[in-house]
What we know:
The chain is an alpha/beta fold. It folds into 2 domains: 1-70, no CATH class; 73-162 and 183-187, no CATH class. It is built from 5 helices and 9 strands. The chain has helices at 22-32, 46-54, 88-103, 116-121, 138-150, and strands at residues 5-9, 36-42, 65-72, 81-85, 126-130, 156-159, 166-170, 176-180, 187-188. Strands 1-2-3-4-5-6-9 form a 7-stranded mixed β-sheet, with helices on one face. A two-stranded antiparallel sheet has the order 7-8. The longest helix has 16 residues, at 88-103. The radius of gyration is 18 Å and the shape is globular. The chain starts with a strand and ends with a strand.
Amino acid sequence: MPDYAEIGITTNFSFLRGGSDPRAYVHQASELRLPVIGIADHNTLAGVVRAYKELDNPEIKYQPKLLIGSRLVLMDGTPDILVYPRDREAYGRLCQLLTRGKRGEDTEKGECHLRVEDLLEFAKGQLLVLTLPHRFEAAKALHVLDQLRRSPRRWGVACSQPVVPRRRQASPDGAASHRRGGRRAAAGDQ
């Protein structure tokens, strides 16, 4: 069994973003014997329904665990955040959050108007993964991580890549080692 899990999978339910049907991801994960896959379409849970139903298909010889979540694409310039509920109550809160984003008076069909403050209100019980673009501002990413960590609610927080570049540092025996400077790139409240 590989020690690898594919998370943040975008399906064809993320219009103009994802290409494959969620059922195809389940079949591919079965073939590769991946222990876990995480579907996370843009501001929706639509793709996870088909993926979940496909797990009952008798052709699926190796059933991966399916992480049900969503990729929140926020309006305030915050990098995308993958949200994976840890329990049934957290799933309900994620549904409420997505409903809020799609029901605003100024929201057109297909849009979702959410800000990081909205997420913080519904974040209890969620596993949050901050997904940084290839080029990002470290100060902004650290600010978002700090907001997530300082919220009065408790949840796990992870970051998709190091926020602070590593720097070389000599160890006491004279050998070079790598150490991350400044703040940690990920934090979790368990």
